[in-house]
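Dear Dr. K.,

Following up on our conversation at the group meeting, I've run the structure prediction for S-layer protein from Dictyobacter aurantiacus. I'm pasting the input sequence below exactly as I used it, so you can double-check it against your construct before we proceed with anything downstream. Let me know if the numbering doesn't match what you have in your notebook.
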Amino acid sequence: MFCILTLLLLLSACSALDGSIQPTATPDAQKVNVFGTAANHVHAMMALPGNVLLVATHYGLYRSADTGKSWSGPNQGMGDMMTSSLTSSPMDRQHVYLLAEHSLSSQTGTIGLYASSDGGSSWQPASKASDTGKMYTIVAGNRSANELYAYVPTKGANGFVVSQDGGKHFSSPGPLPFGRILGILALPGQPGQLLVYSNDGAARSSDGGAHWQTIKDFTSAVYNMTTSGPREPIYASGDQGIMVSKDGGKSFSMAYADARYSALTAVPDQPEMVYGKTGRMIYKSTDGGHSWKTLPQIKGNLENLVPDPQVSSRLFLSLSYPCAVYQFDQQNPTWTSLTPKA
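The predicted structure tokens came back this morning:
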């Protein structure tokens, strides 16, 4: 899946755009399931080839190597630190990155960017937040497996940075056209082609962020963008509704004006299929966003929706308070729990 994990509502409940940690209740001692206590919640989730699932939570990173039948975690290297903003390279899905910071005053681990070259099985610190500034979101690039884009909100319009060495060093390619952004989309299969979106609209770059052109079709906030693959339609959700681009993000047209989903999820190899999510419901379109149907309702606080990269009919969903993971298959349209009890 080539979808941006922007943390729009996920991380905002825990960390402000200026990087300061917001007060969070100390978790109870009693575990309710494999993900810990009822106070735990999900910031990001990712499905990788080879049946791997990664769940970044407020109290650690969890991994499954068998499509959710069993789980390991929290990761020993990061312990129960808050993890967020998972992203993997479209050129090598084993290259995975995430952000980690303290969620409890007792934690002592390194705050910053972590990298994995084995699909999240092991992790190493790549760079410290004290050196780069505290990043809000990260997105794997489209020019090499070691390219990574990030946004540091304390730097405002100069907060868009890029690394060409797997996150060890970052530099600014140029200023953004907005004071702050909500997310980044690196277009798969199109080196250097990028989109950013914000409360003030969206912009496009064809040279890795050195120069930007605002997209005139957006006149207000854009919450999320996604695409299913190289040169496929790009979907956007925002104040205006659901918009779609079929020219690589140069222009967008209205697909559906009566919905504003907090997140969109595209499906690999299914360019006309896209899912929309609110905090309580999930919607599906099979005609390029022009009409939508609801999926069976599931109780809980809905967080991340990601497709299986190998089985296009399968979806994974994370819930929060407490953390949980579910699977949905179009062939058997019901939600199945992938969350072992404590």
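Two things stood out to me. The chain has one helix and 27 strands. The two ends are 31 Å apart (CA to CA).

Best regards,
J.T.
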